[in-house]
Amino acid sequence: MATTRLQDRDPREVPEVVSRKGHSTNLVGLPTALLASDSFNRSGTPIQLAGVREANHGLFEMLDRADDIDHAAAMFTAYMEVVFGLHPEQRGRSGAAGDGRRRYRSSYGRLVRGWAYDSNGPEGAVMKGWVESRFGLFPTFHKQPLLRFSSEAWTLYVEEKMGSRFHNNAIFSQLDLVYEFAQWTLSRFRADPEELTLYRGVNDFDEHPIIERIDRRTVILRLNNLVSFSSQRDIASWFGSYILEAQVPACKIAFFNALLPQTPLTGEGEYLVIGGDYRVRATYF
């Protein structure tokens, strides 16, 4: 199968899923088209998921007393274990018939580890589904480009994101708290919390439709609704010959490696970024 180079992609060839961007509603109080735009990324506008901090005000009051990022991570982990029964000693050990079997409870940690192993696996589909639900953004890739809502690829994505094995423990609510904790951590412990320079390595542009070409090296890409970046250019080069350099607003950081040391991603300096249209500089490593 032929791959697409930067100079070969026609930005007018925009498939249905990409052209529609996302749902008309979301939980951040902004039009999805605005949230997905390159203009939003450069505006520095903060966002919050509606009601998450208010419903968990005790957690964020406790976090305000944290001495450092490790202390905050320990507090957050303990809170999640209590609220969602994630600690082994707190998990139900009996089934409906009282037969002593342990019940499986889905957890944010399991999803992050699954994403690290394969972002196109079932765990990745659930996380993309969470972004779709909360931020209104459609995914553009899952195992293959998602070009049409009526396609077999889209049907498979929907089946995996709705799989019952990951939806038995308020998993989207868990991810809501992970996102808000990431936002709290960035604002509390980063000297410049507004944006980060991040890198992504790619071999072609089949996964990232080009929306507009600014100049020979600069384009606006439609990134998947959840996508991995690295804070280190050298690490990004391990994953492809083209290096995409983007200025990512902090409000679009959903997770990063230093956030919860006990739940790491595979790559050092890895960030999970909410997608949309990004102005990137593409260079050949």
Key terms:
34% helix, two-stranded antiparallel ribbon, single chain, 6-stranded antiparallel sheet, 285 residues, alpha+beta, 20% strand
How many β-strand stretches? 8
Mean of all residue-level pLDDT scores: 87
For the termini, the CA-CA separation is 23 Å
What class, by secondary structure content? alpha+beta
The overall number of domains is 1
SSE string: HHHHHHHHEEHHEEEHEEE
Count of helical regions: 11
In which range does the helix fraction lie? 25-40%
Largest sheet: 6 strands, antiparallel
Parts with pLDDT < 50 across at least 5 consecutive residues: 92-98
- Beta-strand percent range: 15-25%
Radius of gyration: 19 Å
Gross morphology: globular
Notes on the protein architecture:
By secondary structure, this protein is an alpha+beta fold. It contains 11 helices and 8 strands. It has one domain (16-284). Helix content is 34%, strand content 20%. Residues 92-98 have low confidence and may be disordered.
Summarize the helices and strands and which ones pair or pack.
Blueprint: H1 16-20, H2 32-35, H3 38-41, H4 52-55, H5 57-63, H6 69-84, H7 108-117, H8 122-135, E1 141-142, E2 144-145, H9 152-161, H10 171-189, E3 195-202, E4 210-213, E5 218-230, H11 233-236, E6 242-249, E7 253-256, E8 270-284
Helix pairs in contact: 6-10, 7-8, 8-9
Give a brief outline of the structure:
The chain is about 35% helix and about 20% strand. The protein has eleven helices and eight strands.
